[in-house]
Design brief:
Elements (H helix, E strand, L loop, with lengths): L28 H20 L3 H16 L4 H6 L1 H17 L3 H14 L4 H13 L3 H14 L4 H23 L1
Helix pairs in contact: 1-2, 1-4, 2-4, 4-5, 4-6, 5-6, 6-7, 6-8, 7-8
């Protein structure tokens, strides 16, 4: 037992240490672009392995790096990363059945590229799954006008029409 009020002397040996990573806002513009691209690539790898939660986290981190770019030139340089991450995050959210979140990413993608057929397709799927089949139909019809030969879009339109029919049946029951 050590008596109360005793003075203790310790020898401490430093075995190792890790340098703290810079905060996102402390990185140079080039480092932010690089990290955003790396995190997107990691997200894609996680998606391919069906690790959807991990993929979503990677896409969110990538988008966060992009959000710290303020110069128009830098935003243009990371346009593809930004659009891709929003589209991929929407796809992940659809897989995870987090439809409101998928809508959010689709809307962000459409702000970047108002003619993004992928964003419209995924937005339609999200709207259909949250019980908004009429809005989903508007979205998918716009996408079909842009890419009339896409089988994927036609398939989504068929799903939307089924949802609308189901909606009408349920209304009749009331």
């Amino acid at each position: 037992k050590i008596p109360g009020g005793a003075t203790l002397i310790f020898d401490v040996e430093l075995i190792g240490f890790e340098k703290l990573a810079k905060k996102k806002w402390d990185l140079s513009t080039e480092e932010k672009k690089e990290k955003a691209t790396e995190r997107k690539a990691e997200g894609n790898a996680q998606f391919k392995e069906a690790n959807y939660a991990e993929a979503l986290e990677c896409y969110r981190e990538s988008l966060e790096y992009v959000s710290y770019l303020y110069e128009e030139e830098d935003k243009k340089a990371t346009f593809d990363v930004n659009l891709g991450c929003n589209l991929n995050a929407a796809a992940v959210c659809l897989k995870l059945e987090n439809f409101p979140e998928a809508l959010k990413y689709c809307d962000e993608a459409l702000k970047l590229d108002e003619f993004s057929v992928k964003a419209m397709f995924r937005k339609s799927a999200a709207l259909r799954n949250i019980g908004e089949p009429h809005k989903a139909k508007q979205e998918i019809m716009t996408a079909i006008k842009l890419d009339p030969k896409s089988g994927m879009l036609r398939k989504e339109l068929a799903e939307v029409k089924k949802a609308i029919a189901l909606d009408k049946q349920q209304e009749k029951k009331l």
